[in-house]
Amino acid sequence: MPAENILEVHHLKKSVGQGDHQLSILTGVDLVVKRGQTLALIGESGSGKSTLLAILAGLDDGSGGDVKLLGQSLTSMDEDARAKLRAQHVGFVFQSFMLIPTLNALENVELPALLRGENSGQSRRQASALLEQLGLGKRLTHLPAQLSGGEQQRVALARAFNGRPALLFADEPTGNLDRQTGDKIADLLFSLNQEHGTTLVLVTHDPALAARCDRRLRLVDGQLQEEA
Questions:
Q1: Which intervals hold domain ABC transporter (predicted)?
Q2: Of 5, 98, 162, 223, which has the highest C-beta tally within 10 A?
Q3: In the chain, where are the structural domains located?
Q4: Structural contact between residues 103 and 128, judged by C-beta atoms closer than 8 angstroms
C-alpha cells in the first residue's frame, strides 16, 4: 500500500544573501499533505509562495529542515535522483507556461515521456489524446507563438499531466488568463484530481480557485497558517 502522506515538510527554512544582508523567506514551514488532497497556498505578493512551491517540487533547495516526497527525502538526494523522482511522479505548471518555442504543441506534451525513455509511438498517442481531451485536437502542430494564452496553458497542463503524476504543482495556473479561460483551466485541474486521484498543490491569488481546494494555507512571515 502506498504511504498515505504524499508530502511531508519539517521545519523548512530558506534564506538568501549573506551576513548582514541575509533575508529570511521561510522561517520554519511544517506541512503534511495526504494523497488525493487539493491544497491552495495563498498570501501576499512576495511572501515566498513560489519559492516554497519550487522547494516542495525539488526544483530548489531549502536552507534548513527537510522535505519528503513519496517518503523520500529530497534534502538528501542529488539532482539526478530528484530529476528521476520528478519525472516518474511529479507534474509542474508554471505561470509563464515554460513551453519550448521550437516544438509544436504535440511535441511539447510528448517530451517528458520521451525523456523517461518511453516508447515514442505510445507517448505520441498519449500526448495526442490529452490534447484532444483539452480541446486542442486541431492545434497539435501549432507552435506556442501561434497559440493563445489559454491554449498555451492547456498545453502546459497536458505536458504536466502526461504520465499521470501522483502530485501536480501549479504556480498561479489561472493568473495570466481571463476569467472564462481561467475557470476552464481550474475545472480541468480538479477533474484530474477527481478522476485520477492526483494530489494538487496550487499557488494562487484567486479566492474562487482557493475556495475549491480541500485546504487553504496562508504564508505569513515565512510560516504557514491553515485557514478554515
A1: 7-228
A2: 162
A3: 37-59+88-226
A4: no
How many Cβ atoms sit within 10 Å of the Cβ of residue 35? 16
Dump pLDDT digits (tens) for 95-144. 778 899 999 999 999 987 777 777 778 888 989 988 998 889 999 999 99
3-state secondary structure 56-120: HCCCCCCCEEEEEECCEECCCCCHHHHHHHHHHHEEEECCCCCCCCCCCHHHHHHHHHHHCCCCH
Determine the distance from the C-alpha atom of residue 66 to the mean position of all C-alpha atoms in its chain, rounded to a whole number: 19
Q: Which residues pair with 61 in a beta bridge?
A: none
Give the model confidence (pLDDT) of 45-66 as tens digits.
989 999 999 999 988 999 999 9
The neighbouring-strand residues paired with 73 are 68
Closest CA to 100 of 114, 86, 88: 114
Q: Which residues, including other chains, have CB under 8 Å from residue 136's CB and lie 6 or more apart?
A: 105, 151, 154, 155, 158
* Alpha helices per DSSP H over the chain: 49-56, 79-89, 105-115, 120-133, 149-161, 179-196, 207-211
* Set of cell numbers at residue 137: 485536437
At 1, is the pLDDT very low, low, confident or very high (cuts 50, 70, 90)?
very low
Burial (CB count <10 Å: 0-12, 13-18, 19+), residue 214: middle
Q: Cα–Cα distance between 91 and 158 in angstroms, integer?
A: 10
Residues 6+ apart with CB under 8 A from 81: none
Please identify, in words, the CATH class of the domain defined by 37-59+88-226: alpha beta
Other C-beta atoms within 10 Å of 196: how many? 13
* DSSP three-state, residue 30: strand
